[in-house]
Amino acid sequence: MGDTPIVLVHGGGHGAWCWEPLLPFLDGRVVAVDLPPVSIRGGPARHEVPPGLDRLTLADWADAVLAAADGAGFDRFVLVGHSLAGLTIGAVAHRSPERVARLVYVSALAPPQGENGLTAMDPEMMARVAGGLTAEVIGELFCNDMDAAQTRFVLDHFGGDAAQVMMEPVDRSGIPASLPKTYVRLARDRALNPATQDASIAALEAVPGGSVAVVDLDSGHNVMISHPTDLAAVLNRLE
What we know:
The chain contains 9 helices and 6 strands; from the N terminus they run E-E-H-E-H-E-H-H-H-H-E-H-E-H-H.
């Protein structure tokens, strides 16, 4: 990845903790962000509902990403988002495109311009989680290619989130079509199946436009945990 640092942004129910297995394999400077509220990002209060949770917005999450980059001393960076963080990294690039050297969507959600994350999700998957994200459902959707220790790591950290953010219309206008974009497509993903990932790729090709470099990995949804060396190899060769 040369001299350009990386900012890692987690998806729904996750936190910076999910990138821990990946970090030892990355070559350069990197920071993993905990989106607000930090109290639900893997700690003992991860299933609680902190005050203000229902008022958080994509703008708040974009603020947190830029603040983390500032805190790490990164002026310009490769911005990597996993899963629901496809919404967040799009919001960051919309606000500060000059700071983003490349957008990397790791099986990440990118709804069509002006639509929201909920409408971009697969209806069958949404029906599966309608009864709640129990340990069984988390294991099925996020851990289907993991060993017992990796699965335990996820179950011991997975928490709640600000679900209303999925209802916000996305706006990727103002992101230059020339901004490099990579999509890491995961073949065994059950949370965002390949068809949902392909729809996100098509949405990015439409807005902001330009080409999207697609990299295929034989992995389930949490590739940074189940196949960290494979994902590191992709990120380390980015310019």
